[in-house]
Amino acid sequence: MPQNTREIKRRIRSVQNTSQITKAMEMVAAAKLRRVQDAVQQSKPYLAKLQDMLANVSASARHVKHPLLASRPVKRTGYLVITADRGLAGPYNAQVVRAAMQEFGKKDKSAFTIFAVGKRGRDFFKRREFPIGAEVVDLDDSPTHQSIRYLAEEMVQSYEREEFDELYFIYNEFINAVSQRAVVKKVLPLDSLTGEHTGPRRQYEFEPDEEAVMAALLPRYAETLVYQAVLDAKASEHAARMTAMGNATENAKDIIADYTLSLNRARQAAITTQIAEIVGGANALS
User: Fold this and answer.
1) What are the Cα distances from residue 199, in Å, to 100, 181, 196, 245?
2) Are 242 and 177 in contact (CB under 8 A)?
3) Phi and psi dihedrals of 165, rounded to 5?
4) Which ranges of 61-108 does DSSP label H, i.e. alpha helix?
5) In degrees to the nearest 10, what's the CA dihedral of 72, 212, 187, 113?
6) DSSP letter assigned to residue 53
7) Residues 168, 62: contact at Cβ < 8 Å?
8) Strands, DSSP E only, in 48-147?
9) Which family does the similarity line name (predicted)?
C-alpha cells in the first residue's frame, strides 16, 4: 500500500472512475436483459403452438418421410456453440467452451463440425483448428430471426444433405438474473415430435399434400429452435455481464474504502511528525 498521500489520492480517483464505468455497464446490461427477456416471452407461445401442431401433423401423417425426422447411424455430429462477441461477462464464455470441449472429448476432428455464434467461441476453435461449418458474429444485443436465419438454414440443409447425422446445441441456459448454466441439447433429428403431443389429437386436411406441408413446417420449426436458443443465450450473456459489473462496482467500493483508510493514516502520520518537529524545535529553543 503506498504511503505517499498524492499517490493514494491518484489511485482513489482512478478506482472511482472505473467504478463509474462498471456501474454504467451494469445498468446498460440490465436494460438489454429486460428487452431480450421480453423477446423470449413473446416467442415462447409461437414455439409451443408450432410444436403442438407439428406433433399433431406428424401423428396424422406417419407415412411421410422427411430427412429431419429420420434417425440414421451417427458417423458425424454437428454442434451449434453459442458464445458472446465480447468479454467482461464473468464465466459466461468459459462455461460454454468448457462444456463444448468436454462434449468433443477425444473425438477425431473429422467426426464433428462446429457452427459458431459469437467471436469468443469462434476464435477459440479456430486457434485449435477445429472444423467450423458456418459462423455468425456481431449479433445485435436483441437478435432478430432474420439475423440468424442464414445459420439456421445452413445447419438444416447440411443435415438434409447428410453432412452430419445429429445436431446438438451448446449454450448457456438462462435460469434467472444471477444464475446461468451451460447445457448440451440434442435437437436433430426431430424424431421425438410424434411422442410430444399429450392432448386430444386433431385431424388435418392437407393442401396440397402431407409431404409439402411437412417440408414447409419442419425446417421452420428447426429454425425457430435455433432462434430460441440464441435468445436464451443472449439473455444469459446480459445477465452474466450485469452480475459481473455489479460485483466489480462493489469491489471498487471496497478498494476505495481501503485506500481512504490508508490516506487517513498517512495524513495522521504526517500530522504527528509535524507536531513532534514543532515540540522538538520549541524544546531546543528553551
Assistant:
1) 36, 31, 9, 46
2) yes
3) -115, -5
4) 92-104
5) 70
6) H
7) no
8) 77-82, 112-117, 132-136
9) Belongs to the ATPase gamma chain family.
Write the burial class of residue 150 (CB in 10 Å: 0-12 exposed, 13-18 middle, 19+ buried).
Answer: exposed
76-114 per-residue burial string, b: 16 or more CB within 10 A, e: under 16: bbbbbbbbbbeeebbebbebbbebbeebbeeeeeeebbb
One-letter amino acid at 268 equals Q
